[in-house]
Amino acid sequence: MESLGQAMKNIIDKVFITVGSCPDCGAEMYQWREKLSSGEDRCGPTCMICGHKELKRKQDYDTRVMYNESLKKRALNYFKHSSIVPDKTLFEKRLKGYMVTDQETKNALEIAKRAVNEFILGKPVHVVFTGKSGTGKSHLAMSIAWDVLERSNYDKDVLYVNYRELLDQLRFAMNDKEAQRQIQGALMAELKTADLVIIDDIGAELGGNKTSDSSRYNNDTLTGLLEARQNMATVVTTNLTAKELQEAYGERILSRILQNSKGFVVSMKATKDKRLISGIGA
Questions:
Q1: Handedness of CA 47, 53, 57, 62 (dihedral sign)
Q2: Structure confidence by residue, pLDDT tens digits, 28-63
Q3: What are the helix (H) ranges across 121-228?
Q4: Which residues, 6 or more positions from 230, have their beta carbon under 8 angstroms from its beta carbon?
């Protein structure tokens, strides 16, 4: 008379087939002999010793993939649709495409890479790029944004705001106080919650006279942006020097810009206009 154990084994052998070893305990993995009418397996391999289920592992993997894809889609949608970027080709800029032409641009690239590391760690660093138009400030700022998104597996909210374009949008809505209030309210809410914000091209709104006094409205708007980013990861680009920033906006705004920026201020004085060299852009 066969033992109960042998009888069970005979039943198992009729119903199941072995398909390798369990990755957890090393015992045999079993799978149904009969397939579904569609020809597909009824379920993934299972270990009868420790309970490891290959199907569950696959389902868990598929769930992670779907979650990561959802996270990426949400982060990119936020970045591209909440940002204020008048020149959409700027979204194409990456660090690997930044042209290093001298020690100054080499230093700028190194600081940009170091800033990304700080932002990934959640450090409230302020990075400040100053220099003439066409020296690559916006290129580096956008590249930092992309690097932070990609290296965080799209688990960071990143916002890019061209300051002059923002002012133009607000001025356009001046005759509609409700629309202006909604724009400002929505922007401030996003500025306060985004993991990283780039405020691009401060000073361009002043026109050719860089050291002229900024309007009260301009100052109030810029102060609001910078106060919303106190002790938060921020990148600022400007065509003004520190002295010109102080003359145009005052000491208070300059202080807000330079907060937490030690070791992360890049002054591009010697770099030539790259747009004239190769068309890379500002």
A1: positive
A2: 877 777 777 777 766 677 776 665 555 566 666 666
A3: 137-151, 163-172, 177-193, 216-228
A4: 256, 259
Q: Six-digit token pair at 13?
A: 């052998």
Q: Taking Cα atoms as reference points, which of 118, 117, 100 lies closest to residue 109?
A: 100
Kindly report which listed range (123-127, 165-169, 185-189) carries the lowest average pLDDT score: 185-189
Fill in the DSSP letter of residue 204.
Answer: G
Distance of alpha carbon 254 from the chain centroid: 26
Looking at the chain, list the stretches that DSSP marks H as alpha helix, in order from N- to C-terminal side: 4-15, 54-82, 103-120, 137-151, 163-172, 177-193, 216-228, 242-249, 251-258, 274-277
Q: Identity (one letter) of the amino acid at 80?
A: K
pLDDT of residue 234: 98
Report the 10 Å Cβ neighbour count for 35.
11
pLDDT score of 156? 96
Q: What are phi and psi of 74, to 5 degrees?
A: -65, -45
CA separation for the pair 131, 237 (Å, rounded): 8
C-alpha distance from residue 170 to each of 60, 167, 225, 226, 241 (Å): 47, 5, 13, 17, 26
What structural domains and CATH numbers belong to the chain?
Answer: 4-52 (no CATH), 82-277 (3.40.50.300)
Residues above pLDDT 70, as percent of the chain: 80
Exposure string over 100-127, b if 16+ CB within 10 A, otherwise e: eeeebbeebbebbeebbebbbeeeebbb
* Tokens found for residue 158: 């990143």
Q: Is the distance from CB of 247 to CB of 239 less than 8 angstroms? A: no
pLDDT at 31: 77
